[in-house]
């Protein structure tokens, strides 16, 4: 099989670094170029220092669409749409966007929402894919089986904590080590930007759902990984709930339902999502753990690429967790 020629637009950030690392060792992919206006001409390993000795590629200023089958957009929110509108991208080049720009359905937006556990069949035939947000991925995985069965009857209550890499590579007051270390804080309570795509997905499966999704995002003092706890009203037994989730995710290779209370270190550096369910009175609690840079971003983007090009979803994503 001819290798998939891949290009990265906006190659200096955390998600691009993870994409480079995965694509360099993907057996069916070839990294054609990595674009970065601010780093053009510089070796990639000078920015992504974990790649010292792995590649001699340098950043380019302009993308080479003629030598590419798929591009990954790793730019800030708002910049992806600007890039697509201002560049003559050939119809033969597939696009996977890691920003927020195309996640919400709107007139003229032909991007398929790229959560494989929700839209795998639609992704297969897509030309353009909007990769989900990191919080949105972990949260949606806790409720998709309930929504698919029409069993969401009450409000959703979500508390989720993310690592500092979720804020991106550019330093800020709340990502500065001396502020973030040994510290925890809430931000964008009840109004986080990922609520739109979460609501959209839930209503896709259960159109009658009209309850509130109460989401409290938390900045954690760790580097990477998202821990989500969701609870909602549920009248069934815990055994019925576990069966529902195991059946729904049986054909999805990166999602695992476990009887043990999970922790973030089980998934860091992997594309896995681990779920755990408990019943407390009339409430069902669902926990999920994911790596915000992989299943929440770059790993999922490569998973989507694999689906787009007819490969096994797990190709190139046999990543091992960091357990210490």
From TrEMBL:
Catalyzes the NADPH-dependent reduction of N-acetyl-5-glutamyl phosphate to yield N-acetyl-L-glutamate 5-semialdehyde. InterPro entries: AGPR, AGPR_AS, AGPR_dimerisation_dom, AGPR_type-1, NAD(P)-bd_dom_sf, Semialdehyde_DH_NAD-bd. GO terms for cellular component: cytoplasm. Belongs to the NAGSA dehydrogenase family. Type 1 subfamily. It is an enzyme of class 1 (oxidoreductase). This is N-acetyl-gamma-glutamyl-phosphate reductase. Gene3D superfamilies: Dihydrodipicolinate Reductase, domain 2, NAD(P)-binding Rossmann-like Domain. It comes from Gaoshiqia sediminis. It comes from the Bacteria. The gene is argC. It catalyses: N-acetyl-L-glutamate 5-semialdehyde + phosphate + NADP(+) = N-acetyl-L-glutamyl 5-phosphate + NADPH + H(+). The active site is at residue 134. It is found in: Cytoplasm.
């Amino acid at each position: 099989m001819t290798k998939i020629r891949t290009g990265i637009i906006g190659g200096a950030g955390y998600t691009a670094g993870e994409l480079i690392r995965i694509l360099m060792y993907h057996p069916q992919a070839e990294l054609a170029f990595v674009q970065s206006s601010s780093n053009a001409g510089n070796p990639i390993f000078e920015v992504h220092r974990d790649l010292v000795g792995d590649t001699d590629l340098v950043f380019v200023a302009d993308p080479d669409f003629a030598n590419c089958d798929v591009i990954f957009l790793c730019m800030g929110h708002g910049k992806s749409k600007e890039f697509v509108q201002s560049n003559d991208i050939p119809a033969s080049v597939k696009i996977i966007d890691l920003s927020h720009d195309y996640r919400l359905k709107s007139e003229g937006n032909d991007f398929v929402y790229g959560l494989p556990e929700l839209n795998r069949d639609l992704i297969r035939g897509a030309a353009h894919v909007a990769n989900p947000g990191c919080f949105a991925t972990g949260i949606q995985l806790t409720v998709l089986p309930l929504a698919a069965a029409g069993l969401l009857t009450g409000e959703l209550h979500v508390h989720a904590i993310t690592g500092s890499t979720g804020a991106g590579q550019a330093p800020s007051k709340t990502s500065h080590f001396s502020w973030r270390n040994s510290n925890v804080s809430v931000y964008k309570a009840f109004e986080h930007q990922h609520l739109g795509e979460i609501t959209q997905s839930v209503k896709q499966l259960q159109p009658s759902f009209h309850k509130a999704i109460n989401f409290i995002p938390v900045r954690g003092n760790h580097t990477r990984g998202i821990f989500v706890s969701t609870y909602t009203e549920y009248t069934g037994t815990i055994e019925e709930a576990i069966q529902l989730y195991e059946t729904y995710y049986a054909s999805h290779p990166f999602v695992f339902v476990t009887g043990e209370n999970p922790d973030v270190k089980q998934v860091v550096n992997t594309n896995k999502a681990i779920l755990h369910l408990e019943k407390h009175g009339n409430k069902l609690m669902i926990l999920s753990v994911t790596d915000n840079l992989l299943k929440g971003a770059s790993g999922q983007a490569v998973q989507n690429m694999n689906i787009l090009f007819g490969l096994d979803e797990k190709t190139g994503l046999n990543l091992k967790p960091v357990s210490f």
